Amino acid sequence: MAESLKCQVCNKAATVHLTQIVNNKIHKVDLCEECAHSKGVTDPDGLSLADLLTQTTIAAGDGEAGIECDVCGFSAADFRRSGRLGCPACYSKFESQIRPMLKNMHRGQRHEGKVPERSLSRTGARHRLGDLERCLRDAIIDERYEDAAGLRDEIRTLANNIDGGGRG
Amino acid sequence: MSIAAIVNAKAELTHGRRPKAPVVLSTRIRLARNLEAYPFPGWAKESQRREILSTCMEALESVEPLQQGSVFQLEKLNKLEKQILTERHLISRELLDAKDGAGVVISGNQGCSVMINEEDHLRIQMMANGMKFRQLWKGIDAIDTILEAHLDFSFSSEMGYLTACPTNVGTGLRASAMMHLPGMVLANQMEKVVRAVNQLGIAVRGLFGEGSDAGGSIFQISNQQTLGESEKSIIGRLTNVLNSLIEQESNAREKMLESEPLKLCDKIGRAYGILKQSYMLTSSEAMNLLSLLRLAVDLKVSPGRWRSVIDRLFIESQPGHIQYAAKEKIDAGQRDVLRARLLRKEFSSLPPLNFDKVNGSY
User: Fold this and answer.
1) Residues 18 to 57 of A: which have CB under 8 A from any B CB?
2) What ipTM describes this predicted complex?
3) Which terminal residue of chain B, N or C, has fewer Cβ atoms less than 10 Å from its own Cβ?
């Protein structure tokens, strides 16, 4: 007899085997009856394959459950439990887990749509401001006062430009 | 603004002025957006969610269509008021379970609503009668651009708009249509259709989204994929699928008229009789009868102007709306009585069905 498959969520013996074709790629998911029910597999209207793939893909990367996001403290285990991320920075922290998931879910892996130009130029300017402030501190510590004066002027101009708006 | 104002307003979905179309009841586009500086709502602390709420509310004040609208904090609404907003598709079922600090801003004609602290910080949505994706995208793109002037959205050039769930990342765009597909339901074709469109990355759900049933043969059809494709391409691909469903639905109807005209006339005739004469109707029975009557209008068995009455009643005969109109606490049985009374009254002037064009020889 073939080796019995394990549920991809809880590792119990799997009795529900789901095959779906998305973008000409075959996805197979094996679940025990309980998980199948709780994931809505038995209710065809409520089944979201994407959600299911999220959770089973995360379950596969078991050894990494301890990793935490430096910004918000969200862990890989939290991700696995909820299928949701903690904060925007989680995308880079958990990139190795998220990437393969995106490949299964979406048509491509690179954003092709709208770009928030105004928002980006503001955040870009703010990051630049942070860099300049660091340089200014270094210049003062190193007693490079001429450099420091130049940096201070640059910071002033940039800060005035950012003041136009933008929160959160 | 109060819930009463929402219920009594001439809203886009209940009183839209444009003539109603067969098959496509309404279309909707929503965008998921998040602020860079905060955790997503499900992981944020309560104090952070309150900051997000006030920051977003303030930014929304500069969106012109919302200025004459209503603002609600979910924790200040009772269960019935929330149910009313859900039944009118102004908030999602997910927002009902949201933690403290959730809110919604609704435009005067209820064609636009923005949920705050649902799964994402902002869920902007626009809805319209019939197939209106181009107009909706134009409107929602403009609102999003206004908000971007005030809010720093979390965005990565690689992965696009970053969302709480990776299923929405990229454009954060979900476009959907409410489709009335009684022909394919009666012909038992829906299972096949669902399977076929799923393979194209398109989801089929019931009237109230994920996990809801397809009462009244109404299905919500939407894109599942949000990354790797532009907004216009997502909408274009969905539109192609919808157009092909409209064609299949009309084929199913024609086939039924040819092969089983009596069965179809009988179903429609019974629906007509029950809607005009019954004294107790559950909401699921009412949905199915209204669905058959809408089919009758499409087949020109009933006059075209009744389509918009029927679409309004799809919403106004939902349990929350019946309870709200009763003005006092009633149970499900009393609701069924009031629902039947409402439908008798609404259809009292509905003229007799005219089957000549469908089935002249019987």
Assistant:
1) 20-23, 40, 43-46, 48-51, 54
2) 0.85
3) C
